[in-house]
Amino acid sequence: MICTNGNRKLPNTIILSLVGLCCLAGCTRQNYKAEADEQVYRIIDQKWQDEFGTKANYKISDTVPSPNDIPIEEKEITSFGVLTLPQAVGLATSQNHEYQTQKEELYIRALDLRLTRHEFEYQFFGGASGGYNADRNDEAVGIESNIGFNRLLAGGTRISTELAVAWIDVLTGNMRGGLTSILSATVAQPLLRGSDRKVVLENLTQAERDTLYQVRSFNRFRKTFVVSVISRYYVVLQKYDAIENARNNYITLAFTYDRVEKLATSGRVPLLELDQIRQSKLQAQNFYSQAEKEYMQALDEFKITLNLPTTTEFQLDEKEFEALRTAKMAEPDFTEAKAVEAALLQRLDLVNSADAIIDAQRKVYVATDGLRADANFVGTTSVTSARRANRGTIDWMREEYGLGVELNLPLDRVPEQNIYRKALITLNQRQRAYELAADTVALEVRQAHRDLTEAAERYKVLLEALELAKQRFNNTFLLLQYSRASSRRVLQAQSDLFEAQNDAAQALVDYNISTLNFYRDTGSLQVLPDGMWKL
Question: Please, are residues 167 and 179 in contact by the beta-carbon 8 Å criterion?
Fold first, then answer.
């Protein structure tokens, strides 16, 4: 039925419906982020394998943390004044800029995969338009709308359907108005080039593998990052221990000076020896000031690693350093050859390099397919129906079908030829890159094994030297009290003790860092939810 000037409920209703649909579509914007986050982390969870470690500390900052995350807030540090090692690692993983960037890179890679997967899903579309037209004889309002979908199948088939509806209301004159709808569908199937399932799915396959590679890379980064944070924590503790050694050195020399001063006053030692001790005491005071400066500098640099303001006041847990001293030395119980073998099997970055060869092989296969001819089967159908009104109602429908084959002979394949040749070269490059990566991993493990062996041996030697230095100083200082040793011998013994204390502390830190580096390089180190590590 044709609407007249006095009856325009139908166009008004349609217009209001279109406005409502637009508002409804706009209201869903607030859900886009939540939906993207859900899709991305579902993908990451699918790609995350158990051997990578616990799924923790991998979600970006503006999403809900994973249940395994252990959040550390700055107020927890300032309230207690002591930053434990687990707190330091947890704080670094939640606030460090580089760590945040790695989490975002992982998210973006999974987001790209989500888009690539969408290419093989139903892609719906729809829209509408309306307007008013008039000339000297007629006035009319019209609305056109369409809805449909496109889809690409794994075999290369492309399907496209669309339903289009047009409605015209003639307000004046003798023109006819009414409703017209068109249902159309197109199916295109490649028969030669682009018909292979592996070729059609190549972009999706590569996107799936790239996401897996990024998950591996992120977990490899987590291991190296945790080792670096723990190592820096140990270094700052060693700097603090150096302050204690310098302070004790100064106190000892001050006490020795007072003792020798009494002996010099009574004429039992020459004044020259008293001047020597005074000079050593002044040097000890300078060492103390330098140790404090180096410690404060190292602590401020560590705050930057934690993404904390340098004005934040806290101390590191001294118990951690005592735990290192009392811990039993545990050297690796396997040979260098076994360590290299383990690394070649476990290093995630090396696995990525090996899989890159498989990717290059597929690219050669896809490039070979590109050299073939194009042959496409195309089928179309269209059904048109109309409802006209001119003193009554007239319905009519028309159906159209079409079948065809398109052929494009491979007479010019220069671009495809270049792609194919580059793919072969890339395959050779990936093979060489893997060989170099394997050699580099073996070199790193061998070096780490040597460093650990040397650090363990050096720590044993310097620990024994420290005990001897303590005994020597105690004996010499006792002899000084009975005037059976010169103050020069006491000064030398104290100097050797001070040096032995710092050397032993440095060797202790080097040994523990070398241990971490060794298990990191072999790929055996696993990161726990609290940021700490286990083997």
Answer: yes
